[in-house]
Structure of Dehydrogenase:
Amino acid sequence: LACHADDALALLSDATAAEQQILGGITYQDNDTVLHTDASVLPRDRRAWAAWNAHVPADPQAPCTVSYWMNALQSI
C-alpha cells in the first residue's frame, strides 16, 4: 500500500502490536511551501536547471531548499 505510515496505521482496524510500533514510530516534519516565480533560487547556469533543484549549504545547521520547477514536468 503506497501511503504514509500514519495513514496505513489508520487503515488497519486490527493492527498488531508490531504494526503499531513500526508504523507509529515513523515521524514527519512540517515544511513550508512557497509558490513563486523567483528564478534566483535556481542554479545560475540555466543548463543546470532540472525539475527538482536542491541547494544544500555547507553549514549543516543551515536549512536546505528544494525547488520544484513545475513547468518542466507539467508542461505549463
